[in-house]
Design goal:
5 strands; 5-stranded parallel sheet; alpha/beta; Rossmann fold; single chain; 231 residues; 6 helices
Length: 231
């Protein structure tokens, strides 16, 4: 289907997602950071990927644990600020090629100790390296968009829930995305991811709500892109 010359910028999100041509040929890199394939983190990542695929995106699912990514840094991957063209390890270049190929990047992760899991932190430390994602006059990350999906065990009314929001809005959105020239970045905190004290249908309903919030976060990212394109 050819992309319409004058796309309708006033339609609903559901109308837009049915028109796959709007996002044809675009790639979404969904990065999963959890050691268990049956964890809620993996299920949320799958739901986000399905939503993006329905909008016409090609999905590159990067499961860091399943692919055996090593989060430990090493001498080969230390940045050389006097040489932005330094050749890092083959593992890093293979990973950053997937980052560069993506139009949308969606890290999905549990919030542990109000921070990133070591696996995901190590991925950013090693792969989002000097000269690869920042440090150039022409940014290799320009035009990309991001959605950070953080799963927090505490409830939204917990007195420490503000620390989760601070993590997403500060070190991640500003400190990583915007620092690497990705200002079009959204964040979503999925609180009470453990569904404490819930049983039976109440627990199932709770997780359905988390999946709905995941889809809403993806929809907002896609809708904001289309609004910007229509200006």
């Amino acid at each position: 289907m050819a992309r319409p010359a004058n796309p309708d910028c006033t339609g609903s999100m559901s109308e837009h997602t049915e028109d796959r041509a709007t996002d044809a040929e675009l790639t979404a890199l969904v990065v999963v950071s959890h050691h268990r394939s049956d964890a809620l983190t993996a299920a949320v990542a799958d739901r986000a990927a399905t939503r993006l695929e329905a909008a016409g995106y090609r999905i590159d699912l990067l499961n860091l644990h399943a692919e055996g990514f090593d989060p430990r840094n090493n001498v080969a991957d230390e940045p050389d600020y006097g040489n932005r063209d330094k050749r890092y390890s083959e593992e890093v270049h293979a990973q950053v090629d997937r980052v560069h190929a993506a139009d949308v990047i969606v890290p999905v992760f549990p919030v542990w100790w109000f921070g990133l899991p070591a696996l995901l932190k190590g991925w950013f430390d090693r792969v989002w390296n000097y000269g690869l994602t920042y440090g150039r006059s022409k940014s290799p990350m320009a035009g990309k968009r991001m959605l950070w999906l953080g799963l927090a065990g505490l409830t939204q009314d917990d007195p420490n829930s503000d620390l989760v929001i601070t993590l997403l809005e500060g070190p991640l959105k500003r400190g990583v995305s915007e620092f690497c020239d990705v200002p079009d970045t959204h964040v979503a905190a999925l609180f009470d991811s453990e569904g404490q004290d819930l049983q039976g249908q109440a627990r199932e309903r709770h997780y359905r709500e988390l999946f709905t919030r995941t889809e809403e976060a993806v929809d907002k990212l896609l809708a904001d892109r289309r609004v910007a394109a229509c200006r």
